[in-house]
């Protein structure tokens, strides 16, 4: 069998572990051949690929990033490309394509599958918001980075009687904020799934100070939004450089809390450090298992599906299901988190 | 409600997170009172306990160990104690006991429950070998510590053309060896669940050297055993000090490989570092959720059960089921791991 | 002897290690008594202090922050206080005061010493910019945090062909940027000590891309400033919230590079995570030694001085010398760093 | 200029950082050519080397081990080789050799220098025991690994009322034990430089238990030795496999303490994890500076010397001085450490 593999979308710790696993399982277990397309779908369209043997994937298991590169591709070009999908298989002589990526990638994967190309997807997102899989690799690493930051900020907040607002990734789903906030013991967690009332945060901080706990840490997802009327914040406001991304909720909330409380409040925007670097052991295992099962699915002819974690098992689930709706934090998980502040 | 909590058995990162979560949920969510028994069941028998308020659990979320202490108790004394269980409830005026512990503790918990005491258990083992829960807290931390050690050993093995044998915890179940071996990219993994053939390891190392990869790392669970006739090893052999534990399989295997291969082989026995220290974010979240749900179960009167992870949900499962058999690594997980060496 | 100790100024990993060391050495080595003033000089002025015995400092060696708290104090109030310094000694019955702090604290310490109070200072700054000591504790931890961030950002920059701009602490001296940039292998380092030419950075990135290295990481100290005419940047510009700190050089530089290069550039502002959390082993050793030697100096009557590292020795150096000028990165260290990009 | 570089002796985090720095400085700063000999002096003798350009050293800064490999060489063969040293220079057309290694390597380097070969040495040892340099790279990483282990062991020891004995590297000098013991807050530190009295350790543990601190951690260097008559221990005793190394002082001491105290004591032998893996920021900076200055020295014709850290400066020091005597822990450093237990 000849397998094509590519990585697309934003960076995510564990991508290299999937690539390595696909190559190991395919070559050692089945005697297959594997080629890797460069810079995601761009490489597929432009015919930029290279053969991946055991040496090519040696030493990459613990490395962040992706040895194949990744790049954004305009939807239009991708759609156009998908329509000619069958040609790819013939052109590069591949029997199956294993695209590793997020919602956009899996949507493209489905278009390719619908167009008749044999495809086995591997889901990837640090946001953990893909339906039909319990978890995605990269998420545990992101939560670990954010938790370590909260751990560090707590000691400094405590010594200086400050409020620290940590903004973590999560535009549409608040999984990173939920779990890093819970693991770090944040005293407030704001998620995109539930508009937050700034008055509640103000009250929480005041009660803590009254109890002699003269500091607080609030963990806020970048996509969190205040309840209308409780705070002046326009999502997507443009900063002095014309960039939307530089004036996020974390900075705005720290400013608001400082103003209302009359106490020092500082924002920390974690940003891209959550996306890079050595994956945790958990993510390496999950990524390795996804790679392994993708190859097995390819050999079984189980196309049009993607790997998914269900409990402790890796199962195959239709691409169509995976991308219908975002997996958001359910209300009971938010309640759990709130009650252990 | 008045809740008693205790921690028993070997150390496990996340115990403090459970205690903290129980106290927070009980006090803040329900207006309960919580007392903590010292040194496990010993404190229950001897009447050593203290009140746990929010201040008592402040700052312990990220700390290893247990603020309540833990101690071994002879089965006989425990059994005797269990028979008089109802007295405890009355004596200390507790409406429910939440024992946090491993197989032995859960067995004791069941005895107490059978004797009529309201009990809600929380499973705890770094070995991840308790049935009816997908995972236990502490395991992820242990795997992380072992994986970091393997990462470090790989670079030094590679530079010096050596074979390194890492012995990790796992007397009856090989989960730590499986996942840390997979995450660290070990070239051989030996588990208690499947006797290993030393000849296979010798062949693997020789093939690697032949391919120009002049090093290898083998990850072996302390309870792994060689196939009869492939290596001279008597489990439980007594060392020069009369201790069984100081002459384990790791050391023996390194010696055997060195002898057969004519190459340097070194054992590294990780030992207790796997049990201590700051829990990973994953373990803190799982421990916190277990604590939360144990309190909720207590308030629902859902006794004689323990918390368990199923997929992404925390469910309650009968104590009787949990302790009937050890959760061992199934054959397909071993096959997966072996094929990505 | 009765010793008073206080921590003042910004947070710095290792403060607790100094406190612990002072208490251990004073109590165990000399049979002294130690009291700790709360919230820096504020506690000294307001008479808020508590006795510190071995139990009070148990378990704090590896903890960030300061168990004594720290707070800013207006210069005027401090000066006023210093003039009545002798009273403190008599009022609290202390034979010596050990203030642990940065430049401001050491200046105050000197005023107290000049006013006749027995003082032994311990220098503290994550910025490493205090003259007459080779290093200060806290610096190694800050560099470690920044280096780990750069490590993570490099993998993600590489996969996505991006320029990442990491802003680290250092308003007047660029030590953190210098050492974390060097340790992380940044491709450009901008320090307050030397105005940088944006054209050089643009050229560097373009040359890297031309060589096939399609990413770059620039490490910039918060106090770095562009050469006039090479980039439009007004230090201390006020952001949308009226805060100077939220529109730093990191964000401005990322924007400028993106505009000029036509490639994605992203800023990451590390902020307060550099100040908090567990100190590195290096910082714990240095802090412990500083505490030990401060107590010895007190017993020798070696007042008006502070502890300092010279090579591998801890020596006492006059407070007057320490605060005359900031220790800035010398030109040869900048040259070294630049040539290994 | 054509520069030859090699790495010899035991593994040490930072070797790759030196190699990278040499290549960067030589190529970018001077337009030199660099070749790397494989497996230390073996490659020099056998003529196994490869050209090192910027690509060859890309991405290795943070990686443990050495891309050039390292191997032991019998003294006799080396001596023989040294006598024909001039030939090497001519044979490979190198103008200078930069050997990176420990005491043995530097001795060989001196022989080569005496034989007329232009040599600039770079000292390397995790043990920090080379005279005439304040510190060596690799040491900080080893101390960091050992300290993290002690941190972890303390929490587990405390929860279970145990004595933990951690054996760290250091056959002839106890620097790692000194600094990791101090940083980890060990309650006893045993070094090769001062025979320890087991009775003192027993007394220390008993006093701690009497004070209510029911655990203790002892940090012991592998080369530490008990005072005659206080404990039965024969250095270099042979274990069941005929290996000296498997029956070290850590295991023997744990056994002795358990016997005398009637409390559980457990040994943890850290072993090779101290030698491998990602170097700390401190070690990367020191290694990078050593490489840079070695190239500069070569261009100045400053041969027969090695790089050394003095305070904050890198200086050149005669090889002859470096190897005359081991740098051992002085008495005052031991006193410092002992008084903050």
Automatic annotation (TrEMBL), chains A, B, C, D:
Residues marked Important for substrate specificity (site): 104
Listed pathway(s): Carbohydrate degradation; glycolysis; D-glyceraldehyde 3-phosphate and glycerone phosphate from D-glucose: step 3/4
Organism: Streptomyces noursei
Family, similarity comment: Belongs to the phosphofructokinase type A (PFKA) family. Mixed-substrate PFK group III subfamily.
Enzyme Commission code: 2.7.1.11
BP terms from Gene Ontology: canonical glycolysis; fructose 1,6-bisphosphate metabolic process; fructose 6-phosphate metabolic process
Classification lineage: Bacteria, Bacillati, Actinomycetota, Actinomycetes, Kitasatosporales
Record-given protein name: ATP-dependent 6-phosphofructokinase
Keyword Cytoplasm: yes
Domain of life per record: Bacteria
Cofactor: Mg(2+)
């Amino acid at each position: 069998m000849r397998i094509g593999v590519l990585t697309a979308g934003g960076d995510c710790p564990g991508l290299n572990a999937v690539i390595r696993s696909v190559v190991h399982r395919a070559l050692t277990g089945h005697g297959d051949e594997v080629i890797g397309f460069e810079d995601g779908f761009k490489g597929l369209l432009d015919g930029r690929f290279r053969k991946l043997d055991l040496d090519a994937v040696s030493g990459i298991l613990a490395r962040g990033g992706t040895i194949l590169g990744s790049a954004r591709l305009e939807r239009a070009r991708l759609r156009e490309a998908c329509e000619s999908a069958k040609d790819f298989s013939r052109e590069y002589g591949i029997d199956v394509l294993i695209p590793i990526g997020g919602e956009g990638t899996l949507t493209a994967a489905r278009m390719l599958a619908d167009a008749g190309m044999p495809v086995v997807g591997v889901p990837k997102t640090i946001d953990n918001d893909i339906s039909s899989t319990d978890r995605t690799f990269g998420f545990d690493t992101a939560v670990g980075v954010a938790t370590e930051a909260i751990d560090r900020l707590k000691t400094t907040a405590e010594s200086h009687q400050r409020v620290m607002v940590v903004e973590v990734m999560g535009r549409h789903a608040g999984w990173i904020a939920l779990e890093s906030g819970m693991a770090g013991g944040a005293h407030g967690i704001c998620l995109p799934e539930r508009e937050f009332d700034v008055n509640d945060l103000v009250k929480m901080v005041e009660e803590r100070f009254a109890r002699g706990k003269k500091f607080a840490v609030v963990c806020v997802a970048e996509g969190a939004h205040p309840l209308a009327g409780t705070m002046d914040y326009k999502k997507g406001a443009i900063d002095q450089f014309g960039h939307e991304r530089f004036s996020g909720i974390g900075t705005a909330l720290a400013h608001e809390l400082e103003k209302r409380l009359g106490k020092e409040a500082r924002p920390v925007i974690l940003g891209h450090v959550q996306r890079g670097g050595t994956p945790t052991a958990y993510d390496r295992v999950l990524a390795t298992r996804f790679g392994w099962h993708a190859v097995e699915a390819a050999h079984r002819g189980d196309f049009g599906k993607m790997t998914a974690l269900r409990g402790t098992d890796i199962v195959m689930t239709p691409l169509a299901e995976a991308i219908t709706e975002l997996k958001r934090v359910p209300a009971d998980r938010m309640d759990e988190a709130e009650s252990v502040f």
